[in-house]
Amino acid sequence: MTRYLSCAETAKLVRTELKRVFPHNRFSVRSHLYAGGASIRVEYLNGPAVEAVETVVKKFEGASFDSSIDLKSYNYTVVEGEKIQYGSDYVNVTREIDTITKEKVASMLATTYRVSFISMDSIPNINNRWDNWHQLVWAYCRNRSIEEIHMSINGGVNRVVV
After folding, report:
1. How many beta carbons lie within 10 A of that of residue 109, not counting itself?
2. 108 and 159 in contact (C-beta within 8 Å)?
3. Distance (Å, rounded) from C-alpha 91 to C-alpha 55?
4. How far is residue 157's CA from residue 151's CA, in Å, rounded to a whole number?
5. Looking at the DSSP assignment, which residues form a beta bridge with residue 3?
6. According to the model, what pLDDT value does residue 93 have?
7. Which fold has domain 2-96?
8. 2, 5, 11, 35: which could form a disulfide with 31 (CB 3.0–4.6 Å)?
9. For residue range 122-161, what is the model confidence (pLDDT) as tens digits?
10. Exposure string (b/e) for 20-57, b if CB count within 10 Å is 16 or more?
11. How far, in Å, CA of 137 to CA of 38, rounded?
12. How many CA atoms lie within 13 A of 150 on its CB side?
C-alpha cells in the first residue's frame, strides 16, 4: 500500500532534513499548489552551495518530467519498508548572496583577473535589467565562457561563505 503525503507534509520533511544536515543555516521552505501539481521552494541567504542543498532536498520530489516525450512521471520512495509518494512534484532551490559577500567575491575576482576594484558602489548601473553585481562579473569575465564565469562566481561565493 502506498502512503500519499500532501505538499505541506512534504515541506515539513524538507525543513526537518535541512535542519539536520545544515544546523547552522536558516532556510525558507514554502509549498505551492497549482493546477496540475505542486512544488516546494527552498530559499536561503549565503550558506552552503546550491548543489549541496539540492542533494539533500531533491529526494523529496514526487515527480519527474521528460520533455523529449512530454511525459510527467511519478516517483515513489520506500522509507522503512513503506512505499511513499511525496506531495511535491518538484523542489527548487535558490541561494541569495548578500552585499558584503558580493564585495568579497568581487575583490577576489579582481585579484584573479588583475583588474582594479574599489567597491560595488563604484560601478555604474547602465542597464536596469542587471544590477552592479552582474555588470562587475561581466566586466571581469567577458572573455571567458559561461561555464568559467559560473565556476568563478560559485567558487568565490563558496570560499567566502563556508
Report:
1. 21
2. yes
3. 11
4. 10
5. 84
6. 95
7. GMP Synthetase; Chain A, domain 3 (3.30.300)
8. 11
9. 554 444 444 555 556 666 665 566 566 666 666 767 776 6
10. eebeeeebebebeeeeebbbbbbebebbbebeebeebb
11. 35
12. 6
